[in-house]
Amino acid sequence: MDQTEERHAEICSPNHRLHTEVTDLKHFVCNKTFSSKSYLSTQLPVLSNKKLFKCSVCSKSFSTKSNLKTHLLLHSNEKRFKCSVCNKAFSTKAYLNIHILMHSKENLFKCLVCNKSFSQKSNLNKHLLVHSNEKHFKCSVCNKSFSTKAYLNTHILLHFNENLFQCSVCNKSFSQKSTLNTHLLVHSNEKHFKCSVCNKLFSRKSTLNTHLFVHSNEKHFKCSICNKLFSQKSSLNRHLLAHSNEKHF
Predict the structure, then answer these.
(1) How far apart are CA 41 and CA 28, in angstroms?
(2) Using an 8 Å Cβ cutoff, are 186 and 204 in contact?
(3) Rounded to whole angstroms, how far apart are CA atoms 194 and 118?
(4) Which of the listed CATH numbers 3.40.190.10, 3.90.550.10, 3.30.160.60, 3.40.50.720 matches domain 109-160?
(5) For residue 91, which of 106, 103, 76 has the smallest C-alpha distance?
(6) N or C: which end of the chain has fewer CB within 10 A?
């Protein structure tokens, strides 16, 4: 080594190689250069524990550049993470996740008419039908219409406890329209059911069947007082009147 080289070694750090030998080695994180691979290796653990990337806004430091970029979103107006429930936007996904947890504990969709709240927009939309004039759900029994299916189902239960089909002649009520139609034959002059024995006509088949007992020896109607049998219920009823006139001592 000549005098020039010796002087160069004195001036430069012992950790640097002579510039005539190799290009300096650069650290991939901080871009700091080192003269030898061995010295660079000794510095890696030290550098890995340092937070080298500093935020220019709040001076907060980060160990990786990607973490710094994520942090910088907080200082910008850019909010790329949107809540799928209420459409509120957040600058980071972490903040969005924290926000989403709130939805599980509250009803965010409020009815502007009655202030009732719902956890889902679809439930609010169903509820709003109550306040509208649209009635899409029709009762198959009486044709009455309702704004919601729930109201229709509640209404249908009423049909099990009442006779909705009323005869316009005698006001007798029936639970089914078909039964009412059969009953209406009583009030008409149409008699379609003919007795095969005496040709007498009847408006209902049930009345004809009762009549047929007259022509048979069958007596199905028994008096509960004296056990006497009758072929017709009308005959039994007349007989019962006799018992009502009896005097019991």
Answers:
(1) 12
(2) yes
(3) 65
(4) 3.30.160.60
(5) 76
(6) C
